[in-house]
């Protein structure tokens, strides 16, 4: 059974710092991995989707990397801003589907950017 | 529509009443998912629809929960005889098969 772990569970940093959020998974036979952000009381907003054949994806100040063999993905946020404060979740999709269509979510990292 | 639409956004009900939550996925998306998120917790998978295939109901917590998807588009999640532990945010998501997943804003259910 796929297990997805996000470390740290919570992180607080001053504005302007670069930071890295981690996502690890136990089954490397993945199809893709997706990063989301969730603001309080809201749904999940898609940030980046990385296919299993890709090493990284970039969108603005965000860069997500994927190392399938080691079961890890990182989300790099450059020049953090207070508006980046949110909970960040990763979701891993296994190749071949399965229960829940092969999707497993991490519990998220709660990020606070101090002004 | 432009995004996944869920209604109602908030629902307060009395214990024992039935509730219906609606999800309108992005046009053309064949896959639709329901998740539940309790306060401060992660996402709990409930049910998954893919095209005309039989739904994956493996996450439904009890037989009080059911869902249908009519015409391969709109889905309704029904909770019968609601209990206080059913209080949570119910999230719907859709995608084209195995592509990028898009979520709605959720329906917050409070059972008194």
Characterize the structure shown:
- The complex is a heterodimer of chains A (115) and B (112).
- With 115 residues, chain A is mainly beta.
- Helices cover 0% and strands 58% of the residues of chain A.
- Chain A contains no helices and eleven strands.
- Chain A has strands at 4-7, 10-14, 19-25, 30-38, 44-51, 56-59, 62-67, 72-77, 86-94, 103-105, 109-114.
- In chain A, strand 9 and strand 10 form a beta hairpin.
- The radius of gyration of chain A is 14 Å and the shape is globular.
- In chain B, the strands form two sheets. In chain B, strands 2, 4, 5, 8, 9 and 10 form a six-stranded mixed beta sheet that branches. A four-stranded antiparallel beta sheet of chain B has the order 1-3-7-6, with no helix packed on it.
- Chain B has 112 residues and is mainly β.
- Chain B starts with a strand and ends with a strand.
């Amino acid at each position: 059974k796929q297990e997805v772990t996000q470390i740290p569970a919570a992180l607080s940093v001053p504005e302007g710092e670069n930071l890295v959020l981690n996502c690890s998974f136990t089954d490397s036979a993945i199809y893709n991995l997706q990063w989301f952000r969730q603001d309080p009381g809201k749904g999940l907003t898609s940030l980046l989707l990385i296919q299993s054949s890709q090493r990284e994806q970039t969108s603005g100040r965000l860069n997500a990397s994927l190392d399938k063999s080691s079961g890890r993905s990182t989300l790099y946020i450059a020049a953090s801003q207070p508006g980046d404060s949110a909970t960040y979740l990763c979701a891993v999709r296994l190749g071949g589907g399965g229960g829940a269509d092969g999707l497993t979510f991490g519990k998220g990292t709660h990020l606070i950017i101090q002004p | 529509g432009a995004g996944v639409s869920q209604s109602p956004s908030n629902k307060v009900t009395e214990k024992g009443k039935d509730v219906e939550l609606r999800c309108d996925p992005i046009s053309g998306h064949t896959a639709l998912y329901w998740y539940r998120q309790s306060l401060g917790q992660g996402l709990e998978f409930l049910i998954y629809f893919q095209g005309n295939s039989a739904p994956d109901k493996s996450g439904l917590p009890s037989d009080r929960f059911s869902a249908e998807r009519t015409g391969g588009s709109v889905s309704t999640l029904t909770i019968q005889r609601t209990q206080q532990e059913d209080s949570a945010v119910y999230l719907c998501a859709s995608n084209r098969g195995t592509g990028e997943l898009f979520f709605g804003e959720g329906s917050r259910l409070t059972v008194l």
